[in-house]
Amino acid sequence: MKHLLTMDELSKEEIEELLNRAAFFKKAKKTKFEKEVYAVNLFFEPSTRTHTSFEMAEKKLGINVLSFEPGASSITKGESLYDTALTMQAIGVDVAVIRHQDENFFDALRSLDMAIINGGDGCGEHPSQCLLDLFTIQEQFGYFEGLKVGIVGDISHSRVANSNMKVLKRLGASLYFAGPDSWFKKEQTTYGKHIAMDELVKNVDVVMLLRVQHERHDEEIKFDKETYHKTFGLTEERAGLMRENAIIMHPSPVNRDAEIADSLVESEKSRIITQMTNGVYIRMAILEAVLKEKK
Ligand code: CP
């Protein structure tokens, strides 16, 4: 595995190996790189979880982390992403984690020897989030084949949904969608049925909620938080209809009382905080995989 750019580029076996390694790291097991390894995290869009959990993963693996602030870099003087990345490679960086507003930004960087990890590309993909979601689901259920997963909300703008729907279908899960019709693309019916939220919550093993991506809405959308919560949100009433062993997931940041009732974020069925914790272990596994030859 030279880079981690999209979920489609990972085989089932590679996914399985990454989940196994994440479980290994979660049991407080360690690994060692024989040479000094250097990482840089280039975040051109805001992030709390992805940025800090990659940094935590890097530190737990003994990787040296360079600091980088786009606003204080030569990007402000017109430097291209390729030239920034090339500079990082030239000064000795082994792996760059990049979050960027442009879909497929990584296509221009594929030829670099330095490993590239996609930390989210516009509305494209979010492979490390997808893998931590898979890890969390596997911890809970132990399988994907036949599992019923409901993905709810701003599906068309969500890179998390985009990565997750493709890979969950490939792993044998059955998918259902709910949310505003205008936030669901016709081609996404390839992956599953779009149904009413009340029907979805009663029938799935995983209720995967998505953040409303206001920053990606080109059109002027009239959004009323209360109406959205009542129509498509996971209210306490709807949570009461969920199956006994069903779980709630959300990649976060959560818009409390929009996608999910405030009281449910840390409830018994919620795995939202576990997802954040698991993010560190899956990112350790990803870093180890792309840096394998340096061990
Ligand atoms: N889930 C996720 O990508 O969160 P951040 O935007 O905080 O990194």
Automatic annotation (TrEMBL):
Residues 2-139 form the Aspartate/ornithine carbamoyltransferase carbamoyl-P binding domain. Its EC number is 2.1.3.2. L-aspartate binds at K77, R159, R211. GO terms for cellular component: cytosol. Keywords: Pyrimidine biosynthesis, Transferase. It catalyses: carbamoyl phosphate + L-aspartate = N-carbamoyl-L-aspartate + phosphate + H(+). GO terms for biological process: 'de novo' pyrimidine nucleobase biosynthetic process; 'de novo' UMP biosynthetic process; amino acid metabolic process. InterPro entries: Asp/Orn_carbamoyltranf_P-bd, Asp/Orn_carbamoylTrfase, Asp/Orn_carbamoylTrfase_sf, Asp_carbamoyltransf, Asp_carbamoyltransf_Asp/Orn-bd. Pathway: Pyrimidine metabolism; UMP biosynthesis via de novo pathway; (S)-dihydroorotate from bicarbonate: step 2/3. Carbamoyl phosphate binds at R49, T50, R99, H126, Q129, S252, P253. The keyword Protein biosynthesis does not apply. Residues 145-289 form the Aspartate/ornithine carbamoyltransferase Asp/Orn-binding domain. It holds the Pfam family OTCace_N. One of its GO terms (molecular function) is amino acid binding. It is an enzyme of class 2 (transferase). Catalyzes the condensation of carbamoyl phosphate and aspartate to form carbamoyl aspartate and inorganic phosphate, the committed step in the de novo pyrimidine nucleotide biosynthesis pathway. Heterododecamer (2C3:3R2) of six catalytic PyrB chains organized as two trimers (C3), and six regulatory PyrI chains organized as three dimers (R2). Belongs to the aspartate/ornithine carbamoyltransferase superfamily. ATCase family. This is Aspartate carbamoyltransferase. The lineage of its organism: Bacteria, Bacillati, Bacillota, Bacilli, Bacillales.
